[in-house]
């Protein structure tokens, strides 16, 4: 069966709405279209014959889509017989993508969902997560499965890699109304992946701590004022939004950090090129750390003398009492 020669098939005989083995999404057809127009079809799609005379796509969904756009009435394809088992077709789709362009996160989630229809979760973890580019762990299995519970708008962001999987998995635990409240913020500002995760974690923490909803905090007047401030650039808005969420989540640590920064500025050590005073994490202990950068003995003596002078200042005493 695997040595079947390509045959010419009519495009009209292919059921392009049958996605039994198709997981492709979030793709850009332009590079493939350019390749087909320039070089032709280099790799024939793989189809399965159906008893009703039509054919379903196993591998090569995007190629068939472009061929339809270009108006090809026929094309060469490998055609497996109707009695080919579903699981064999699914594994062919998995390995075709694995050896080719790979999977975006949503495609990986869809493939995991299909595989679980044929194999137990332990088998999927051990054998099939690695070809999807994922560690073979139940944690990753659950994280990717949760993506399929999100609305189409969020799935599109995941497929386009504009929303990090870790943040999307946390969002699957929110209500649909809360996710809808967050979506304009994600569309309006280009948050980094780490910032996306921070914001979702902040909102989740605030909601649990105060018995409110993420939507409540997203609609907060102070946050809305920041978003509507035309004097701020997009990066400035992002920084201030994250700072505001951090203040709401950790008010005592945020106040201590602000006081620490103010005292550093008064001492002339804020962003100092040679001296760095590092506070304890969340100011939960009394252990501060001092880093000094120097190139020679004279420079070191000068810095130590300067630090000796600063050690008598009230601002340093205030820092150590935070």
TrEMBL record:
SMART domains according to UniProt: ParB (SM00470)
Domain of life: Bacteria
GO terms under biological process: chromosome segregation
Residue ranges of every copy of the ParB-like N-terminal domain listed in the record: 7-97
GO CC term (a single one): chromosome
Entry-linked PANTHER family: CHROMOSOME-PARTITIONING PROTEIN PARB-RELATED
Protein's UniProt name: ParB domain protein nuclease
Organism placement in taxonomy: Bacteria, Pseudomonadati, Thermodesulfobacteriota, Desulfobaccia, Desulfobaccales
């Amino acid at each position: 069966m695997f040595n079947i020669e390509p045959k010419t098939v009519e495009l009209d005989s292919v059921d392009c709405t049958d996605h039994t083995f198709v997981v492709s999404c979030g793709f850009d057809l332009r590079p493939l279209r350019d390749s087909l127009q320039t070089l032709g079809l280099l790799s024939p799609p793989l189809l399965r014959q159906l008893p009703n005379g039509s054919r379903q796509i196993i591998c090569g969904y995007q190629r068939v889509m472009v061929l339809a756009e270009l108006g090809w009435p026929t094309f060469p394809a490998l055609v497996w017989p109707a009695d080919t088992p579903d699981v064999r077709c699914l594994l062919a789709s998995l390995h075709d993508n694995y050896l080719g362009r790979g999977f975006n996160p949503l495609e990986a989630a869809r493939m995991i969902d299909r595989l679980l229809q044929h194999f137990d979760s332990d088998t999927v973890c051990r054998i099939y997560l690695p070809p999807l580019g994922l560690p073979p762990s139940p944690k990753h299995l659950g994280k990717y499965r949760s993506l399929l519970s999100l609305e189409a708008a969020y799935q599109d962001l995941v497929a386009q890699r504009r929303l990090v999987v870790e943040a999307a998995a946390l969002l699957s635990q929110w209500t649909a109304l809360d996710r809808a409240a967050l979506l304009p913020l994600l569309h309006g500002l280009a948050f980094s992946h780490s910032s996306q995760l921070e914001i979702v974690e902040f909102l989740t923490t605030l909601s649990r701590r105060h018995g409110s909803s993420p939507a409540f905090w997203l609609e907060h007047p102070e946050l809305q004022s920041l978003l509507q401030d035309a004097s701020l650039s997009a990066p400035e808005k992002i920084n201030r939004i994250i700072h505001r969420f951090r203040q709401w989540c950790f008010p005592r640590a945020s106040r201590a950090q602000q006081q620490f920064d103010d005292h550093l500025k008064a001492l002339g050590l804020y962003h100092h090129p040679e001296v760095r005073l590092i506070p304890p994490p969340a100011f939960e202990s009394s252990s501060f750390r001092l880093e000094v950068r120097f190139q020679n003995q004279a420079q070191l003596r000068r810095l130590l003398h300067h630090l000796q002078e600063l050690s008598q200042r009230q601002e340093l005493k205030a820092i150590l009492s935070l």
